[in-house]
Amino acid sequence: QQQVKQSPQSLIVQKGGISIINCAYENTAFDYFPWYQQFPGKGPALLIAIRPDVSEKKEGRFTISFNKSAKQFSLHIMDSQPGDSATYFCAASSGNTGKLIFGQGTTLQVKP
Amino acid sequence: DAGVIQSPRHEVTEMGQEVTLRCKPISGHNSLFWYRQTMMRGLELLIYFNNNVPIDDSGMPEDRFSAKMPNASFSTLKIQPSEPRDSAVYFCASSLMGTGNSPLHFGNGTRLTVT
Fold first, then answer.
1. Which among B107, B59, B90, B33 has a CA at the least distance from the CA of A99?
2. How far is CA B54 from the centre of its chain?
């Protein structure tokens, strides 16, 4: 079954701290792993993405770590800011279909 | 670029009524996706089109749901008859496939409430 499991469901972090969200997948055919950020009343928007041929990708304060053997990947938000408060979704797809399977989402609250 | 445009933003209807949700994808994009978001089930893919042709509708809950894409700039998701359990936020997304993993661009959704 194609499934992506995400944890934790919710996360509270102090301003300046590190936010870590984890995802695990089952389908070894997945070859594209994006993270999406969603603010209330808005649609999800792509934040950062990785392919399984690299173990880490960094864009500004956001880093994806990827462990192919464990079939896990995680999002790290360094120096978390109140403006990062949102819901984060991991996702996965295979081939070039664009058919994304999403995790359940993590609601992040960054306290000032 | 105006992004993916969905209408209406909010829809309240009574059980048994027909509901039609509309989507205008980003110009030039060749793939369109309909997702449903609920607290219990998260983001579920309902159906997606490539070059206006339905490719995978395995996520469509039941025959009450139907989707069409008559041209590259317009798609509809119809629920007939609607039921309270259909209450959710419905998102349309588009992308340009065939050039690697192009990101999905989501609209701001239609919040459907069926009473």
1. B33
2. 12
Instruction: Report in angstroms the alpha-carbon separations of B47 from A29, A60, B57.
Output: 20, 34, 4
Question: Which of the four pLDDT bands, split at 50, 70 and 90, describes residue B98?
Answer: low
Question: Least CB-CB distance to A99: which of B56, B105, B108?
Answer: B56
pLDDT by residue (tens digit) across B24-50? 999 999 999 999 999 988 999 999 999
- Number of A–B residue contacts, CB under 8 Å: 57
Q: Do B103 and A100 touch (CB under 8 A)?
A: no
Specify whether the CB–CB gap between B18 and B79 falls below 8 A: yes
Distance CA A70, CA B76 (A): 40
Buried b (16+ CB within 10 A) or exposed e, A20-54: ebbbbbeeeebebbbbbbbeeeebbebbbbbebee
Instruction: Please name the helix (run of DSSP H) or strand (run of DSSP E) that holds residue B95, with its range, or none.
Output: strand B88-95
Ranges of beta strands (E only) in chain A are: 4-7, 10-14, 19-25, 33-38, 45-50, 56-59, 62-67, 72-77, 86-92, 101-102, 106-111
Average pLDDT over residues B51-72: 93
CB pair distance less than 8 Å for A99 and B95: no
Cα distance between residue B69 and residue B76, in whole Å: 7
Helix (H, G, I), strand (E, B) or coil at B41: coil
Three-class DSSP category at B75: strand
Residue B101: per-residue pLDDT = 65
